[in-house]
Every structure is written in structure tokens, then in C-alpha cells.
RNA sequence: GGUCCGUUCAUCUAAGGGUUAGGAUUCAAGAUUUUCAUUCUUGCCAUAGGGGUUCGAAUCCCCUACGGACUACCA
């Protein structure tokens, strides 16, 4: 078939002989990678790792008009943050380099021409304006225009033109595209690993452009040529590609590559948390959660979209959340590390229906990963925030604070709201708490308690607890009568960890200072 | 409009002909308590509807409804 033989790089040939799994993540650098794309990358990665195969990063930038500066770097950084690694790709090279389609530009045209020669494709000279007006006309008649078996004979292409006219067009340099020529009466079978067999009648499909007039291939041609020459064994991608899968299957057939055609797996969509439809770039900040792994600043508008990283999510949590949106291990286990996921991942446990993002559960996941960290690790996580707040504190002290706060927050940054009083003495006292809990007898009681605390030989949480308990017993009052006002004095309101722990960590001097100030301010 | 895909608690999902339809998140209540939160316990909540097939259907088939994707010289 045809005169085009492609010689595989030596190492690639080796992989293929061994039947090694090779998958690719192939984003288009048109902006930040959205969370659905991240999940696609993750599933590819898990599948590759589980099978000891190769994970490849290919950039699909055949549309020069949609290039966005920084997008490619963003994709690489985001996946790296999440721990999704590659074996080959634009950023690291490999046996199939180059991995950027614009850098592979010269290799597509011969393949497109091969299809014309073998009768699987044809030249089309219709201008975009002509096609546009066709569509408009059809719309006015209440129908739709499609470039296909029915209409192509009446259009401006190498099938309808006389040989001499065709020759003239070609020689005069009239711009043209190359379109795929669907057979008029075959059933195309897409055997999908997630959805089973999907059948489509070829005459219903439109003759997609394979090669554009600007000399670049379209996605459809480029992805088949690249997947084939890169020895891809499994194409794991979003469900939005399912409608064009029949075209891709036909292309493998047209090239005579059926024997090595990859298996397809079309992933269910990630849906908006509320309302209907596919999760889109605009939904995130409107609904209060990020749709991007990393923060993104649009290079043109300067608009900023929030990212999981900047929102305080741990990468392990994001991976865990994403893995479980559309897949499950078949057990009750929900907290899973990357290693766990690699071990138990399988394509046949991927669900068919779309998944809605659950913000509350995402927070819960992050909480779990936060809980799993040591106090010292948390102190490290908190450090940048303390720097911004211009607070100085010893690492030991910060770690102790984290120890007290850890169970109370979903995100590290929430620790500031929950415990800034550890670093800065309260400047004012919660009005409502004071009104309800600061009784006329409170100052006298606190003064007595102050003496008790000052006299303590040591200042551990237990010492403080016992001293207060003894004081409360002798004064014949409730614990709350003295502990809550003390809390107001030390913390500024009725919130925070166990007071004996807070007091002990603050230290006796600071406790007495805060007590004095509260007595002075509140009377 | 056309083509294709899908539909189990509010949400993520389990149950690949026989279970009181299970778990998790959320929510509610209780326990604990010096506050708030965590935690623990308990509870609420689902097979879209209708037909078949079968002794038996969430599971298999058909129809309807609803939802979604695609329908560019974008990917």
C-alpha cells in the first residue's frame, strides 16, 4: 500500500516487539490544563506504570492560531507538581522525538498525499466563505450542511472537477485542503474498552479535513500518524473524542495499519458541580473551587484563575480525588497513594457516566492528607504564610501550634484564622462572647486564678488543668465560669484548641500578660 | 436538526440474575466537652418511567423521558 514506509527508531521497534504498553497524554497548548485533562493524564500514567509501559507527553499544536504562550510550560509544571511523570516527551526527548507536532510538520504531508493516491482522500478547493454560505443557506431551509457522500459531488473538489480543470487548479497554486473520503456503505466498529462496541454508518459521517491549506495537518491526521509512528498501544482520552473515533478507526484502515491500531478507551466527562454540562474553564471561580491544577494568569487579559496548588490542596489529595472520579478500586478503600493507585488501577473499573465534582468531599480528602503529615511537615507548610504575616517564631513553637490546630482545619492556610493568637496577642475581644460570658463576678475570679497560675511550679497542660480544677472546686463554681473568660483573655473569643494546651504553649509569662490586659480592658 | 454516549441516595460510587441495595462525602441527632472544631455513635436519603424475558431483574432486551458529547481548514 502506497510508497511510504516509515522506519521506526530502533528502540521503539524493540518496545513494539515486546508488546510493551505505550500511552500518550496529548494536550493542546491553548491555555491552562483543566482538571478533566489532568485526570486523563493521571489515568494514562496509572495504566502505563501498572503495565511497566511508557508514558509519553506529546504537544498537539497544529493550530497556530490558538497558541498561548506559557501553556506548554504550565502543563509540564502542573503534572510535575502532581507527581505524574513521563518517560518520553517534549520536555525530555526520547526515541520518537520530536514530540511537538509543529516540529513534526514535514512528516504529515506525505501521509495525506498517500491517502489521495490510494483513493481514501481528495483535494477540496472550497473556500471557507463558500462553505459558510452553504451552511447559512441550509440553516434557512431548516436543514444542515455537511461535507459528505451526498454533497461532495456538487462541491469544488478533485472528485467533481474534470482532470484538466483539476490539473489547472493544482498548478495555479489554488489553496486546497485534503479531506477524508468516507465510503458510502460500511459500518464502522469502534471497540472501546470502556463502552464496548460502538457502531456507526459511514455515510452519515462528514468528510473531515485531514490536511489544512496552511500546510498543517488537522488533529485527526496528526494524531493517527503520531500514534502509529510512536507505537502507541492504548489511546485513553476524554469522551468528547468518541464521535470522531470512527474516523480514526477508518484512517488506520486506510493506511493499512489495522494490525497495530491502538485500543481505545473513552473516559466519562467531568461535569459541573451544579446545573448541567461539562465542566468548563469558566465554572471554577464562579462556583468557588479551582478547575485548574495551578493558578493561571491569562497572558492577554491578565485575568487570574485559581489553582488547586494555590488554594492549599496537597498534590496527593488532588490525585486521590481525581482518581476516584470515574474509577474505583472495587473495595471500600478511598484514601489511596499513587502507589496504591498504580497497583489497583484497571480500565474495566472505569464508569461510563459523567462525574460531578464534589467540593465538600474534596475538602475532606485534603483534610485526611493534612492529618497524615507530621507537625514538623505542617510547620514547613505554614512557614510561607507566617512570612507573609510577618510573624517570627521558633520552628519548635510553630510545630507545636500545628499539632494543636491540625485536626481543626482542612487547609494549612486556615490555621491562621484558627490560631493567629498563638503569634499575636488578641487586640480586641469578641463582643458577643464577652456579653454572654464575661459576668460581673468574672474579674474577681480571674484575678484569683491569676494568682494560682503564677504560683504553679511548672506549666504543663496537666498542671494547668489540675490547678484550675482545684480552684473551681474550692470556689464552688462551674468549670465554664472561669475557663471561658480565660479563653477570651488568651484567645480573644470562644474558639480554639483545648485551653490548657494553649496556655501551656503560650507560656506562663504570656498568659499572665494577656490576663492582665483583658482585666484592664474588660474590667 | 443529525450522530453517538449515558441514567443507583443531594454528591462520588458498590452490588457483573437471588443482599434488609453496601460504603464514603454532605446533612440531622446523640455522645464527649471549658469554647469551637475534630472524633465516635446513630439516623435520613437511591435503582428515571413503562413494557417484556425469567421461578426471580438495579443487573438482560425494547420503548419513552431526561441528561450529555460531537456536529470548524479547533483540539
Write structural notes for this entry.
The chain has 523 residues and is mostly helical. Among the domains are: 283-369, Glutamyl-trna Synthetase, Domain 2 (Glutamyl-tRNA Synthetase, domain 2, Orthogonal Bundle); 373-422, Orthogonal Bundle (Helicase, Ruva Protein, domain 3), CATH 1.10.8; 431-522, Arc Repressor Mutant, subunit A, CATH 1.10.10. 44% of the residues lie in helices and 10% in strands. The strands form six sheets. A three-stranded parallel beta sheet has the order 1-2-3. A three-stranded antiparallel beta sheet has the order 4-5-8. Helix 2 (35-50) packs across helix 11, helix 17 packs across helix 19 (479-491) and helix 17 packs antiparallel against helix 21 (508-522). Mean pLDDT is 93; it is low at 1-5. It binds one RNA strand of 75 nucleotides through helix 5, strand 7, helix 7, strand 14 and helix 12.
Descriptive labels:
about 525 residues; mainly alpha; Glutamyl-tRNA Synthetase, domain 2; Helicase, Ruva Protein, domain 3; Arc Repressor Mutant, subunit A; 3-stranded parallel beta sheet; 3-stranded antiparallel beta sheet; 21 helices; disordered N terminus; RNA-binding
What oligomeric arrangement do these chains adopt? single chain
Helix content: 40-55%
What is the CATH domain class of the domain at 431-522? Answer: Mainly Alpha
Largest sheet: 3 strands, parallel
C-alpha Rg (nearest Å): 32 Å
CATH architecture of the domain at 431-522: Orthogonal Bundle
Low-confidence regions? 1-5
Mean pLDDT, all residues: 93
Q: What global shape is seen?
A: elongated
Class computed from helices, strands and strand pairing: mainly alpha
CATH topology of the domain at 431-522: Arc Repressor Mutant, subunit A
Number of strands: 14
